[in-house]
Amino acid sequence: MLSARHVVDGGPSGRRAQRTTTQRESGPLATHGSSGVAYRYASALFDLAKDEKALPAVEKDVATLRALLEESADLRRLVGSPVFAAPDQIRALDAVMTRAGIGGLVANFIRVVARNRRLFAAPAMLEVFGDLVARDRGETVAVVTSAEPLSEAQMTALREALAEKAGGTVKLETKVDPSLIGGLIVKLGSRMIDTSVRTRLASLKSAMRSAA
To answer: What is the reported pLDDT for 1?
Structure first.
């Protein structure tokens, strides 16, 4: 089972996570906006999942939890606010994860993170975990934000175009942000491509102010 010793200095997985974190942060993942805490915990979960040959199940549960956080503002507040006591956070998250069918390593991981008062960094930990899985498979993660959900045909075309740009396999992660109005924001590895109408309008407004 995953316990606190797997993500703190004292346990063997914790020490391994520290070493691998230093190595990983010197590579492409160093561009990620999260802190070293996120890398350390994500690395511990990734290493343990591989050790126990549970990576597919853990990846599935992580994806489910990320989707829940993306969809629920209340859940994001529960995770991000220091006002809630750890036992209350754990009880609430246990109920959410049970309903969503999330168990095993991921459920225990979240409990450890909550007990260690690091739950505010959980979204970043889950994202880093996804990056580690993708890199382990030789994939580049592309996070695509659009004003409306993309169709399967659009995602296929986009995946092919990005794979050509990346020079290899691309794992596509999609998000919806209606405030973009139109266009896309694509984060391909460390590169950002912003073609959103919102950004173009902001640039136009800035140019008009400068010309006034």
So the answer is: 52
**What is the distance between the terminal CA atoms of the chain, rounded to a whole angstrom?**
63
pLDDT tier, 207 (very low <50, low <70, confident <90, very high otherwise): confident
Q: How many whole angstroms separate alpha carbon 134 and alpha carbon 73?
A: 27
Q: How many domains does the chain have?
A: 2
**Contact present, 145 and 176 (Cβ < 8 Å):** yes
Boundaries of domain holding 29 = 4-136
Q: Distance (Å, rounded) from C-alpha 188 to C-alpha 173?
A: 10
Residue 72: pLDDT over 90: yes
SS (HEC) of 45-85: HHHHHHHCCCHHHHHHHHHHHHHHHHHCHHHHHHHHCCCCC
Q: Which residue reads 């010793």 in tokens?
A: 5
**pTM of the full structure:** 0.69
Sequence letter at residue 68: L
Of 94, 112, 136, the one marking the end of a domain is: 136
Number of Cβ within a 10 Å radius of residue 118: 17
- Chain length of the chain: 212
pLDDT digits (tens, 9 = 90+) for 85-98: 999 999 999 999 99
Strands 140-146 and 184-188: antiparallel
Smallest CA-to-CA distance from 139 within 167, 119, 113, 110 is with 167
